[in-house]
């Protein structure tokens, strides 16, 4: 076994499993007449060709690109939005959750174990939950330092944490239900998409500025990209499948989203200066 394979915990059973998957797949592809579905899934996953010990190399690469998109967006946001702006810490929080979720995605697609799978799912869930948290904070301006809004913000934080902990406890201690996990993330995602779309339409109608419509456009892009998950197909050249393309499709909207957050903050700050 090559050194990089040993470092990534490829042992004798996993090497045998990997080799057998490709022996079976190659024989099915070579059959005449061909099978209707020549490529089968093993353990619920397509038979990918590994690279440097990585089970799904393109998913790893595209996850890394998303990580770099968040890292770049956070750097620009720090440069262009002053630390005194109250929403800045919430926007950076979005970035930190994004960085963590994409690191866990890289780890999981490098080697699929029970632990790495849970880290990936829980990290993605936390990022989606924070996205919904942020949408309510921004749209209803819970960042403003008034007694009523501060109380609502504390209650909203507590509710989001409680829901997330209940979610991971169910998956960890009751049943690791893939269908439930997907449904939960979709529901939370739909809620924030509706909030941001409504906010986008309202802001555009008031300002007539193109950037105000960006959240709605980004939501449309992400929904379109998510459709890749519904139309799964055997990996092209044993390397690129619908899931990896979904990761690729989220890189640009991530960069676009940070551009919106910066524009929105600058517009808000300009309005505060005019009032002063």
Automatic annotation (TrEMBL):
InterPro entries: Per1-like. It is a multi-pass membrane protein. The chain crosses the membrane at residues 48-69, 90-110, 122-140, 152-173, 179-199, 211-231, 243-262. Keywords: Endoplasmic reticulum, GPI-anchor biosynthesis, Membrane, Signal, Transmembrane, Transmembrane helix. GO terms for biological process: GPI anchor biosynthetic process; intracellular manganese ion homeostasis. The keyword Transmembrane helix applies. One of its GO terms (cellular component) is endoplasmic reticulum membrane. It is found in: Endomembrane system; Endoplasmic reticulum membrane. GO terms for molecular function: hydrolase activity, acting on ester bonds. Belongs to the PGAP3 family. PANTHER family: PER1-RELATED, POST-GPI ATTACHMENT TO PROTEINS FACTOR 3. Involved in the lipid remodeling steps of GPI-anchor maturation. This is Post-GPI attachment to proteins factor 3. It comes from Aureobasidium melanogenum (strain CBS 110374) (Aureobasidium pullulans var. melanogenum).
